[in-house]
Amino acid sequence: MSAFTRIPPRPAAPPASFRGWGRKDAISSPSPAWSPSGSASRWCRSRSGASGSRPALPRHRGRAGAGRACGRLSPQRAFAGGAGLRGSRPEGSAARQSIISNYSGYLLINPGEPSANAAGFGGDWASRQIGLVQAGLDWLRELVATHAIACDWQEDVPAITAAATSRGESSRHATRRRYEAWGIASKAYPAEDLRRILGTAYYRYGIQSLTRALVQPAALHRGLADHLPAGVTLLENTTVHSLSGEAPFTVATSGGEFTADRVFITNNLHARAFGLARDRMIGIYTYGDAFTPELDRDQLELLGEMPQWGALPAHRMGTTMRKTGRCLLIRSGDSYEREREPAAVRAMLTQLYRNRFPAMRTHEFEHVWGGLTAVTHNGAFAFGQVRPGLFVSAGCGGAGVTRGTIHGKLLAELACGSQSQLLTDRLAQKGPNWLPPEPFRGAGAKAQIAWEQWLAGAER
């Protein structure tokens, strides 16, 4: 199965949402469902086209322990919620209905920013950070192999960080030297190699990125949901209305009420709706991705000689691309706490496509969509036990899938009193920096986005 081919539909049932990524004990909602009133739901459509799921679960009322994530938590069943807080905006597409809204299928081991680490982390901060995300990648790889999840997991497709400007080229040379100092080999790609692989003369220099695998993210997501441990019940299409303040917690949902001694909040930006990290995270809409229709042989040849490839930008406000199956995927653009109009997004992405591949017969997209993610000022995550029995992992600072996966496992270790070097390393990191209230927060964020977009230049 090529990386973004359609996923066969399940038995008829409403589409559901699951964004656990290894966080298998969340009683709160991992991701909100698409709301008919949400603007993203009006125009964001997936390549997968799948709309089925397992039959809906009945309403539940009763106790829900934290489950058996590490084999020693409460023996009562764990419940994983399916859809977000009532009235919340979409953060990602339904896992059984679409590809994750702002995720292009890259599994990276980026270490993150030094500012996100405690002062005592020392000069080995990168190796410790990479160790964390590598552990998440290794666990995902093990789950995919154990359960034979058909998500087109590929580790031999070139995934290149490509620079289109002299500033970008200089930064890639510096990044490659930094990788070497960390003991990571990174192949260099001169302009002629990029033209051959990517089919475009737009880029002048590239290096092998820290991508360790490319996947079909919807298939990975659904496969993980289908192979949860026996002690976990996944409640799909279940809206969380409220969460009480102290243990034992009462979780009021559209499917009934639950009480639990331990609750895991892993719904990224929407943790703010539970009163968590409200002054630490902002919402950024990203517009990735846009998918071309399936291309014929002549058009595919204009996208380089490799059957599949990935291209990441040399600046964080730049453009991500993937040649996958018989299609091209393009992702770019950011906006603060509010979506851009669909027509404007499509026009922007079409122009970026035309800039890179002017010889294509058309620059049409079959699907365009976007989604909301959480950003912190210093790239750090909210992680740990925020009060007795309440555990959180929220935020996005790069390598979100691999990092989020290991965060889920480490939260379970923390909840059952386990000790490990990875957990020690994770707890040594600082949390997100404080952000000023509105209107200063919004003004600063919008100014920062505009400045970074200007700096990115042709990397966009």
Quickly describe the structure.
The chain is of the alpha+beta class and 460 residues long.
Give me the secondary-structure topology:
Elements: H1 39-43, E1 62-63, E2 78-80, E3 106-108, H2 125-146, E4 159-163, H3 166-181, E5 188-190, H4 191-198, E6 205-208, E7 211-214, H5 217-226, E8 232-234, E9 240-243, E10 249-253, E11 256-260, E12 263-265, E13 282-286, E14 290-291, H6 297-301, E15 309-313, E16 320-324, E17 327-331, E18 334-336, H7 342-356, E19 367-368, E20 371-375, E21 382-387, E22 390-394, H8 400-415, H9 421-427, H10 440-456
Parallel strand pairs: 1-11, 2-8, 4-15, 12-22
Antiparallel strand pairs: 3-7, 4-6, 5-6, 9-10, 10-11, 13-18, 13-20, 14-17, 14-19, 15-16, 16-17, 21-22
**Helical proportion?**
25-40%
Total strand segments? 22
Q: Per DSSP, what share of the residues sits in E-state strands of 2 or more residues?
A: 15-25%
Strand order of the largest sheet: 5-6-4-15-16-17-14-19
Anisotropy-based shape: globular
Q: What is the alpha-carbon Rg in Å?
A: 21 Å
Mean pLDDT score: 80
In angstroms, what separates the terminal alpha carbons?
30 Å
Report the sheet with the most strands, covering strand number, pairing sense and barrel closure.
Answer: 8 strands, mixed
Uncertain stretches of 5 or more adjacent residues: 1-75, 82-101
Computed structural class: alpha+beta
Work out the helix count: 10
